[in-house]
Design a protein that fits this description.
seven-stranded mixed sheet; six-stranded mixed sheet; 783 residues
């Protein structure tokens, strides 16, 4: 951390994360660590039914229970607006004009009023002196339900006679969108080979180590409301709280504390984030709510569940002519995020391949399951699973090596920027700004070593999968740089951290742009009072947007500081350098001045600092960076696996990752991000699944049933990278946080199918548990 600064030298340096020392010493500040004397605690009564009418709610016994301060039902909060994730549900005007997608609005009452639509939906809220007393009171609430038919399978929910989840909608469709490129029908008619397959991405859960939590307090003097939340989007929480409570936004402060993992699950709004601030105002005291693990598994958002009916058309050499995909997405009981996941799937389906014709139709369906929202990868792992599995099936049909088939179809670097013919999420032509996809594949193939099986009944296979990811989602992100009188640099960004290392990587960017030592910079993220405008940490956007806002703000402050120092020293600003926090003249022997000396000098009465009208005396700047387009990251994964046919045991012998995220700010952090993403992808590929019974009851509501891998189950990764700087931003960076999670399900399925090819096994869904592999072996028609 104390290495000397060299201009341009911090970006690209593997600096150890500055936040780790504090966290490893147990000095983190999570919501549960906020000291709020006299705080009441909340507990939520949740529906035991997947679909039912509420006919009566009796809370009299609960209200008189020891320590209970209040008990609220749907009737008690009916005057408050229902929850609607407005920003996530908004369709960009250009996209609406071009594709005319359907997006149903399904406002969620803060507490269920007439009907419950999934197991875990909040029905009542108890506020008590502590959580134990609140939990006791929950058991005293008597709710009478009239059960209704439950829909779990989205295919059944689309039937004409299916019961409606929301009576004000014509059917159970949440979203619908179709996109076409070229003439796919003619391409399929003329193709040498057509393969048709059905692949399913199963449902699982982000399962962060820290469950959701919210605390709130109204200041008795100012009347302002402060909310502490482990949210990924504090500014959106602020606006939602202000809207719900009828407050001006400037009277609400939201602070995103240390966060023990978010992965998208904490990137949306929940009713608890509105109920707890409301309770703080009603009770006139601080209120805290913490989610338990069962609530997180069953009542926080789920992800991934998609069904792809995909067809590929190719010529005799395996060159792709067209793709057709009919995608069904299980949205759960409420449409919380609109087109985000379905459209991510649609516009990432073609991946790094040249596909001249496409016909893609996506429908999101409402069912009596927990609502689904983005989870690390957000629609990309699902669509990559379908496309990469289909490519392997096509290669098998044509007798071509799967890696060779991919190589024949990759877009070359000479074609960049490449336009696919689709439109991106902003409604603009989808363009890959940069990349070298063939090199990614070549490097992955070069690293693969396929050993002989280690004994009879054991089978080795290799799989490949590639992906692209449009990163740096707008519309903007904010950074504010201030030089304190001590000379320390205060950097505030709108994007909070959930483990990405912002306090290190953003400081590296600021140190380079400003010309100060890294350890002179303090970084704060996710405090709406420090940065009044912001979006948040979602969609692989923080480094691209907050990083470039930091870069620009720091450069502007540097310009101000050089101008002020020049006036102070009587030297033209153009003749000065600022390095390691010290102003020096470019010619030897000139005067010097420290940044602290400049910032800390108080002007004498009547002698203010001179200014030319363009540069003020305050050494601070705020920048809102608006990306002109997406920075497209990419990668190639390869896996070598061994499967024991007797037990179904699968062992990953080698896992190769070659990624391209443009300019890498901190290689250590980048490696950690990729490793974490791959680990979560392996979890979904081999272990994790949220299972519902036909009655809508979750069957994997605890860690006794829902299997999360530990570090022992994740192999060492064989990693490599290339660098294709993005022309979409000053730094040339691309998002990295989600990339590792996109390909594991596809690459491991491809490797398993290759290993079990002698048995005619076809892998169409995960997780690839021993029991599922044994089922595949038992039912496969041996060729």
């Amino acid at each position: 951390m104390t290495a000397p600064h060299h201009p341009g030298g911090w970006i690209g340096r593997p600096v150890p994360r500055v936040e780790d020392d504090r966290l490893l010493r147990g000095e983190g500040r999570y919501v549960d660590d906020i000291d709020l004397p006299g705080a009441a605690e909340a507990a939520v009564l949740r529906s035991p039914h997947a679909h039912a009418r509420i006919t009566a709610v009796d809370v009299r016994a609960a209200r008189t229970a020891p320590g209970v301060l209040a008990v609220w039902t749907g009737a008690d909060v009916a005057h408050l607006p229902a929850l609607l994730n407005r920003e996530e549900l908004r369709t960009p005007p250009r996209l609406a004009e071009l594709l005319d997608p359907y997006v149903a609005m399904t406002p969620m009452p803060l507490l269920a009023d007439d009907k419950v639509r999934y197991v875990g939906q909040p029905v009542a809220l108890v506020l008590a002196e502590n959580r134990y007393l609140a939990e006791d009171a929950l058991e005293l609430i008597d709710v009478r339900y009239e059960p209704l038919p439950a829909l779990v399978d989205p295919r059944l929910a689309r039937a004409a006679d299916a019961p409606l989840l929301h009576d004000d909608l014509p059917d159970n469709t949440a979203v619908a969108v179709t996109a076409r490129v070229g003439d796919p029908d003619a391409a399929f008619a003329a193709a040498h080979t057509v393969i048709s397959e059905e692949f399913q991405a199963h449902r699982y859960v982000a399962s962060p180590i820290e469950t959701r939590a919210v605390a709130a307090r109204v200041d008795s003097y100012s009347g302002d409301l402060t909310v502490w939340s482990n949210t990924q989007t504090p500014h959106r929480v602020r606006e939602a709280v202000a809207h719900t409570l009828g407050r001006a936004s400037e009277t609400v402060r939201v602070i995103a504390t240390d966060v023990g993992g978010g992965f998208g699950q904490k990137g949306i709004l929940y009713v608890e984030e509105l109920l707890i601030p409301y309770a703080a105002g009603e009770l006139g005291r601080a209120v805290v709510w913490r989610e338990d693990r069962n609530e997180n598994l069953t009542a926080a958002s789920h992800a991934r569940e998609q069904l792809h009916r995909i067809e590929l058309a190719a010529d005799a050499d395996g060159r792709l002519l067209a793709v057709r995909d009919r995608v069904t997405v299980n949205f759960g009981a409420y449409n919380m995020t609109g087109l985000v996941v379905p459209y991510n799937s649609l516009c990432h389906l073609l991946g790094p391949y040249r596909v001249p014709n496409a016909d893609i139709d996506v429908v999101g369906v409402l069912t009596n399951t927990a609502f689904a929202t983005p989870y690390r990868g957000a629609g990309r792992p699902e669509t990559v699973f379908a496309m990469e599995r289909a490519l392997d099936r096509l290669a098998h049909r044509l007798g071509i090596d799967p890696a060779d088939l991919r190589a024949r179809n990759l877009i070359g670097p000479d074609a960049m920027p490449y336009t696919t013919g689709l439109v991106d999420r902003s409604g603009n032509p989808q363009t890959y700004d940069s990349g070298d996809f063939p090199q990614l594949l070549r490097r992955a193939r070069a690293r693969v070593t396929v050993p002989a099986p280690r004994g009879p009944g054991r089978h080795v296979g290799v799989g490949y999968a590639m992906y692209i990811e449009a990163t740096g989602l707008g519309p903007f992100e904010t950074a504010r740089v201030d030089i304190a009188p001590s000379g320390r640099v205060k950097l505030a960004i709108g994007a909070p951290s959930q483990g990405q290392g912002h306090r290190t990587s953003m400081a590296q960017i600021a140190a380079d742009a400003l010309g100060v030592p890294l350890d002179a910079i303090d970084v704060v993220g996710g405090d709406t009072d420090r940065t009044p405008f912001g979006v948040g940490t979602i969609a692989s956007r923080a480094l691209v947007n907050a990083g470039n806002a930091t870069h620009r703000a720091a450069k502007l402050v540097r310009e101000k500081a050089l101008d002020a120092a020049g006036r102070r020293l009587g030297v033209p600003a153009a003749e000065l350098d600022l390095t390691d926090g010290v102003f020096t003249t470019k010619s030897p022997g000139g005067p010097t001045l420290t940044l602290a000396g400049l910032a800390g000098r108080a002007a004498l009465p009547g002698t203010p600092e001179p200014t030319d009208g363009r540069h003020g005396t305050e050494l601070s700047e705020t920048v809102h960076f608006r990306p002109p387009g997406f920075a497209v990251a990419s990668g190639a994964h390869a896996a070598v696996v061994e499967v024991d046919e007797a037990t179904g045991e699968l062992e990953i012998l080698q896992y190769v990752v070659v990624h391209d995220a443009g300019v890498i700010v901190n290689p250590l952090i980048a490696e950690g991000q990729v490793t974490g993403g791959v680990a979560q992808g392996i979890g979904g590929a081999l272990y994790e699944e949220m299972v519902y019974g036909p009655d809508g009851q979750p069957r994997t509501g605890t860690y006794m049933d829902y299997l999360v891998p530990t570090s022992s189950e994740i192999p060492d990764l064989d990693m490599d990278e290339i660098h294709s700087p993005s022309p979409m931003n000053d730094l040339g960076v691309k998002g990295l946080g989600e990339g590792g999670a996109i390909a594991p399900q596809a690459v491991l399925a491809n490797a398993v199918e290759d290993a079990l090819r002698p048995f005619g096994v076809v892998v169409r869904r995960g997780p690839l548990s021993p029991s599922r592999l044994r089922d595949l072996l038992r039912t496969a028609p041996t060729p």
